Prior knowledge:
The structure holds two protein chains of two kinds. Chain A folds into three domains: 3-236, Aldehyde Ferredoxin Oxidoreductase,  A, domain 1, CATH 3.60.9.10; 272-480, Orthogonal Bundle (Aldehyde Ferredoxin Oxidoreductase Protein, subunit A, domain 2); 495-558 and 592-717, Aldehyde Ferredoxin Oxidoreductase Protein, subunit A, domain 3 (Orthogonal Bundle). In chain A, 43% of the residues lie in helices and 13% in strands. Chain A contains 31 helices and 17 strands. In chain A, helix 13 runs parallel beside helix 15 (391-406), helix 14 (374-387) runs parallel beside helix 17 (424-436) and helix 21 (495-502) packs across helix 23 (528-548). The longest helix of chain A is centred in the last third of the chain and has 27 residues, at 661-687. Chain B is of the alpha+beta class. Chain B has one domain (6-79): Beta-grasp domain (Ubiquitin-like (UB roll)). Chain B is 20% helix and 25% strand. Chain B has two helices and five strands; from the N terminus they run βαβαβββ. Chain B has a five-stranded mixed β-sheet with strand order 2-1-5-3-4, with helices on one face. In chain B, a hairpin with a 2-residue loop joins strand 3 (56-59) and strand 4. The chains are: A alpha+beta, B alpha+beta. Chains A and B meet through helix 10 and helix 22 of A and helix 1 of B.
Amino acid sequence: MEIVRQIKYKPARVAGGYTDRLLKIDLGSREINVEKLAPDFKDKYTGGRGYALKAIWDGTTGKTRYDSPENILVMASGPLGNEPGFPGTGKFIVGTISPMTGTFIDSNVGGHFGPLLKLAGFDALAVTGISKEEVVILIDGDARTIAIAEAPRYDKETDDGALSFGDRLLKDINGGEYSDCLAAVSAGRGALHARYGLIHSLYYDIRRHRIRAKQAARGGTGTVMRAKGLKSIVVRSSLPKANGNNPFDKKGVRAAGRALKQVISKADPTQLHLSAWGTTILSEYMDKFHIFPVDNYQYGQSPDSAKLFAHVFLDNYFSHRIPDGCYYGCNLACAKGAENVELTRGPAAGRKVSIDGPEYETVGAVACMGIFDPQYVMEYNWYCDEYGIDVISTGVTIAFFMECFERGYLSVDDTGYELKFGSIAAADMCLHEIAGGRGFGKIAGQGVARGKTWVAKKYAARNKASQDEVMAELDKFGMEVKGLEFSMYITKESLAQQGGYGFSLKGPQHDEAWLIFIDQVYQELPTLEDKAEALKWFPLIRTWFNATGLCKLHWIDVRNPEAAATDEPSKNLPTLAHYVDYLNATTGSKKGLQDILDDSERLYILQKLINLRQGRGTRLHDQIPLRAMAPAFFNEYQSRAEYYDLWLGQNGGVRKLPASPKQRHKLLIERRKRDYQQLCDVVYEKKGFTPKGIPGREIVARFGLLDEKARRLLDEMGA
Amino acid sequence: MNENMILIIEFLGMQRTLAGADSIEMPVTARSRVDNVLEYVRNKYPQLKLDKDTALVVVNQQLASRDQVLKADDIISFLPFISGG
């Protein structure tokens, strides 16, 4: 491997969870700098997503696009990442300007990269510039070197594969042996062609004796990485992982970790049992409550859904009895995997592969295309990973075009084949075309938002129709907001989750707020005020997890039995108390839950400012497709007509139902649209925003964010 | 007891594996309540570990209170807490 630039450095020691060092690498100028962060930087921006937001706010402008040299690819753990004594501390954030949304995207991912980056001396890594040649970055905390090297060339199959290349590189760098002192991130050839390329977090699993992968999958982080000419980053540190954060109070850390692990061990086996099933267990529950996104979110259930329930994957694919945490110390261990799965389709047909997954989102994405074949789920999972493209955006985009085809907006002349729901052959063809930038895949690789424009132009020209009118129809079922595709939940019957997706700053990904069951099933949010409170509180606490290097599942997906006796069980406050203890024991702070929420609100407001600057921050950009709030077309209404008619009477305030079903469908749509606008009004007020969805100066100033740039921006917005 | 009055108890996810059945029928009276069903299942399938204080009971896809009176052909299921990843 040819080193093109290398520096020596002295790794900073981690103390209280921080190194106070930022590694800045410009791939254009080949400059490598270690920057010491001001002592109060961490107090204001916490870590993880906060550090990424601050870098993007300071280092980019409203004109910065995903492939601009000044765009920054930030990777950062957080003060609480890297502690095997506490479960779920392998997370880090990838933050950048997205090719999908044109604004800030953050995608959180597990594995060892974040912890090892910190042990190698860095709270965060910020990559700018564009390299003319394909390169890799090597951060070696043991050798005390940081290098930019030309990307090695192996063979075409390996070089193209996000998994294969990263796997080979990790082995090569370590004399042909895997080691858990090394971890990498990588992006594949799919990211060269699709806007929704992902970044893998690759780590050595000592139990499975192989490299495993988790993904920072949303919003095109891998596309940014490859646009920079960067194929992989490897980090090495042999420092001990136990007590790696050098916490202020080791006993306190151990006590908090022990307490949370006990809750998980006791409660998870009687609840979702993620440790056995992984997140595939969700498919059945989503189907049961009409939330499974069948046929591009038209129907929440299918008679075929049971073919994709968790037991199918457990019985036929998952390796049993292997604790599958993605970082040491995790006893929730939801990162399920399968070995020796023989591929039956595509260019690698006949090859036996290891597969990390599927997660619920992969299963949902396949159901979204109307496919209910578990073998195809496995193969779709592997190919998306090897190509390095997001399973969610890929599935939702193909499903959108399938619906366009079935509703007559597209024909074989446009796509090259019958792109219909349920067709594995068509979905598979489209997947490989997307990754290769070939045929119709060139269009599908752009995602739903750009796909709508392409279809509208084509259809309008062919039929001498108004492009605006065609676009209005496509807007009803093109499942994206702000340019990002929805994750795999139907929100028609949960007004709170409609907001959860609509207000989400990065676009409709559920990690900012997932309120469907709390709202739709448990009915804990009966009023608009209740929903608004949840739509403020949950995004803030979830932001905190993304800023500190922590996995949320231990808090949100395992209900502490003690929560039942609290006023708000859904907040799972007894478990959050362990997190607060862990924070204070690590960093030496004396914070309470409200302090944490305040820290998060600062980051939330900063992200909102970036959205405003990038032209994605107002009420207009929080609007959701009709299908996210109601049955968009009559066939959807008919599939649950009895339920919808009942809803109109009970919730829609309709005393006498119209005689015709079509009139009732129209009335339902009107009511749902009205409800969503009312929700916007109440939520904005709760968050201190104007009715246009713009934060008031007072709230921006309260969090110390009213700098000159923010002032000018708010002036321009008339706020 | 009206012998013709039965309701259906569905097992979901892990419960199906532990109970060894997709669903069972339970004979009930006109005065049977959710609590009676919970007790019945707890006794019949102790391996489900349904916590009498925290188990969420759903009747016909609607969350039900413990004292809700049941009617023939109601479909009952028990939910874990699901709060999204």
